[in-house]
């Protein structure tokens, strides 16, 4: 049954993406940039509904009161494609720094260009990176939220942390708070797999780390608070969803934490 539900969900998920992108294109490009955010936010909400009705996966968010006003860096754990869209409805005016090649994709590239996403050549140095930082500062000064995944790429639940120093440089140069986010959607929507598992999990938005710390102190603080919350949520999620098949990284981490399933 899980296989069948997963196959059907994946078909409907991508059909929903294409359908909404095509049908809502006239609205998206006729309204103002910020009004157009209704489209990706509603797409995210529709995916939550599909995941609940077709797979039986639900979630709740704790700590919305920790989200500050104005510009800040939003720094969630990254385990799944779910992370890319799921929290967009709770951010007022988000943007990404993304690979410039994504801007060349027909229709999708036009969508992200309208939202003033910041493209970057990952191999670039010097003037190019200075231009990227200047663009990011402009967007941040307008009160927007930069979404950055501190570990850079998707990692399985329970994996040893691998935080990149790039977020510390952004924190220093942009001079804004950073909001850490702990969660384990990768237990329900695993990376590089088509299976989707039913159950319930929490997203925990942690208190913002204020601007102005030494970058090294900031990075250690970010890692410590995020991983402590992640460990707590891993135990809680596994305890409340005993049916879940666990990746080896999660099994190993639970053993290190002294949790017996």
TrEMBL record:
GO terms for molecular function: 1-acylglycerol-3-phosphate O-acyltransferase activity. The chain crosses the membrane at residues 7-31. The keyword Transferase applies. Residues 72-186 form the Phospholipid/glycerol acyltransferase domain. Coiled coil: none annotated. Keywords: Acyltransferase, Membrane, Transferase, Transmembrane, Transmembrane helix. PANTHER family: 1-ACYL-SN-GLYCEROL-3-PHOSPHATE ACYLTRANSFERASE. This is Acyl-phosphate glycerol 3-phosphate acyltransferase. The lineage of its organism: Bacteria, Pseudomonadati, Pseudomonadota, Alphaproteobacteria, Hyphomicrobiales.
């Amino acid at each position: 049954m899980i296989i069948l539900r997963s196959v059907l969900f994946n078909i409907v998920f991508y059909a929903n993406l294409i359908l909404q992108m095509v049908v809502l294109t006239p609205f998206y490009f006729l309204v103002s940039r910020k009004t157009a955010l209704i489209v990706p936010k509603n797409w995210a909400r529709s995916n939550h509904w599909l995941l609940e009705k077709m797979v039986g996966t639900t979630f709740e968010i704790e700590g919305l009161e920790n989200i500050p006003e104005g510009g800040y860096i939003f720094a969630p754990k990254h385990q799944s494609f779910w992370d890319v869209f799921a929290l967009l409805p709770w951010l007022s005016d988000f943007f990404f720094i993304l690979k410039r090649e994504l801007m060349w994709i027909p229709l999708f590239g036009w969508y992200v260009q309208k939202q003033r996403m910041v493209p970057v050549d990952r191999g670039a140095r010097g003037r190019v990176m200075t231009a990227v930082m200047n663009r990011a500062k402009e967007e941040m000064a307008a009160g927007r939220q930069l979404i950055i995944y501190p570990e850079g790429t998707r990692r399985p639940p329970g994996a040893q942390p691998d935080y990149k120093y790039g977020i510390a440089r952004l924190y220093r140069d942009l001079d804004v708070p950073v909001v850490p986010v702990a969660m384990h959607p990768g237990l329900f929507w695993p990376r590089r797999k088509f299976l989707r598992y039913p159950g319930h999990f929490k997203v925990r938005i942690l208190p913002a780390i204020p601007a102005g710390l030494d970058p090294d102190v900031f990075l250690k603080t970010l890692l410590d608070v995020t991983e402590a919350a992640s460990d707590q949520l891993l135990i809680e999620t596994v305890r409340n969803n005993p049916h879940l098949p666990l990746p080896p990284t999660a099994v190993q981490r639970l053993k290190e934490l002294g949790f017996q399933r």
